[in-house]
Design goal:
- The chain is built from 1 helix and 12 strands.
- It is mainly beta and 157 residues long.
- A 12-stranded antiparallel β-sheet has the order 8-7-6-5-4-3-2-1-12-11-10-9, covered by helices on one side.
């Protein structure tokens, strides 16, 4: 399953549209005013299906993931000098990417491929292609990409 993740050009808060392979809206993400990032995720019917929330007052960025208001895990940045690394506390997943943070792979603890994420560089806004092996993992992969993009946005500001 492939998803196209596009940040909206003109919005007060982080807002994203996520499209499926046919060009239909699969998810809509809307940022809210809060301490730290708070991104709510809606399905194509407009029902809230999850959100990520940045923990404030932590030494390194940390984002909690919620599905149907239930905590499911978190992603936190690790201290490194050259290549950014993230610790994922969800289902034994891990993430490995390049030093530019444009392309990365998500695998489970056995090395099984979960998803591949790549950034398209010739766009006005952040645009990623998410190639997800199992469609049931799409929401969780989307949450991880949102957290990494929010962390990069905070670091670059």
């Amino acid at each position: 399953m492939k998803l196209l993740f596009k940040q909206r050009l003109f919005s007060w808060f982080d807002s994203y549209d996520i499209y499926d392979e046919a060009g239909n809206t699969a998810f809509v993400v809307k940022g809210e005013l809060a301490w730290g990032h708070l991104l709510r995720i809606y399905n194509s019917c407009g029902k809230e299906v999850g959100y990520i929330k940045e923990k404030v007052f932590t030494w390194l960025p940390k984002f909690e993931m919620y599905v149907d208001y239930r905590y499911v895990g978190c992603i936190s940045k690790e201290f490194t000098f050259i290549r950014p690394r993230f610790n994922i506390d969800y289902n034994g997943w891990n993430i490995d990417g390049d030093w530019l943070e444009w392309d990365y792979n998500i695998r489970d603890c056995t090395g099984r491929y979960i998803a591949c994420v790549s950034k398209e560089i010739w766009n006005w806004t952040d645009t990623y292609v998410l190639d997800v092996q199992d469609p049931q993992d799409a929401l969780y992969v989307l949450m991880l990409v949102l957290a990494i993009d929010a962390e990069k946005c905070s670091r670059n500001n």
